[in-house]
Structure to design on (254 residues):
């Protein structure tokens, strides 16, 4: 089976639109008949990543490749980058402003959540250049 | 517990009827932090929250939750209501505060875990 390839624009700082790409991927996986437990892991990991792109990355692009036994998600932004990735991975650590917290995010659980639900999580980031997050979720 | 029972118990109003009005809902999760919902929810069907923006619906959708209860008399804008309707998620508003709403539903048999 050939893999399915999708690309989604993620608008920066548009909080009401945040999650649309994740929603679209979730619907696609559902139509493909992927197990709901796997879909949920994909949805959570990607949604947290998408929120991060909107909050911190000024938007970007989500590149999705769906294979028969796994999904690869690349979230690419050209935002301010992450200074200390290890620190950013610490549960509870956050640089989000109060206005983001008022929206229900910014609790410092985004990256830990992504790590928890992804089978592979890789983050490449350069300050002032941007961040690329690679998520792989295997279907069980 | 059916949606109608939740509405009655919480003196609530239904803002959008979901696809599961007749389904028996067994468990709930309450939080204003959507990341915590994403981190901790397993199969709870009801999300009780004081947060009132479209991300509430998105989060519920990601977690396959069937019903959202907005506490403290929050009045959502049309974007949120439309999104809930579009996703087939039941949206209820109650004047009760979070703690009271949780207590009432818990006492009536809604569980924390599935």
């Amino acid at each position: 089976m050939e893999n399915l390839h999708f690309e989604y624009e993620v608008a920066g700082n548009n909080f009401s639109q945040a999650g649309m790409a994740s929603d679209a991927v979730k619907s696609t996986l559902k139509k493909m008949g992927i197990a709901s437990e796997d879909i949920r892991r994909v949805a959570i990991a990607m949604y947290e990543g998408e929120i991060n792109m909107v909050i911190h990355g000024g938007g970007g692009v989500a590149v999705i490749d769906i294979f028969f036994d796994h999904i690869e998600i690349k979230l690419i932004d050209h935002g301010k980058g992450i200074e200390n990735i290890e620190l950013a991975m610490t549960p509870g650590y956050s640089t989000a402003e109060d206005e983001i917290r008022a929206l229900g995010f910014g609790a410092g659980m985004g990256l830990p959540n992504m790590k928890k639900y992804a089978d592979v999580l890789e983050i490449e980031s350069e300050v002032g250049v941007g961040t690329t997050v690679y998520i792989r979720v295997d279907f069980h | 517990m059916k949606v109608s029972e939740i509405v009655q118990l919480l003196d609530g109003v239904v803002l959008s009827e979901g696809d599961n009005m007749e389904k028996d809902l067994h468990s709930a999760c309450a939080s204003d932090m959507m990341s915590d919902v994403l981190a901790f929810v397993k199969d709870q069907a009801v999300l009780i929250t004081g947060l009132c923006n479209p991300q509430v619906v998105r989060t519920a959708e990601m977690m396959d939750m069937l019903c959202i209860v907005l506490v403290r008399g929050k009045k959502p804008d049309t974007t949120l209501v439309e999104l809930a309707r579009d996703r087939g998620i039941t949206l209820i508003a109650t004047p009760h505060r979070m703690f009271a709403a949780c207590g009432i539903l818990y006492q009536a048999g809604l569980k924390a875990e599935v």
Remarks:
- The mean pLDDT of chain B is 94.
- The two ends of chain B are 13 Å apart (CA to CA).
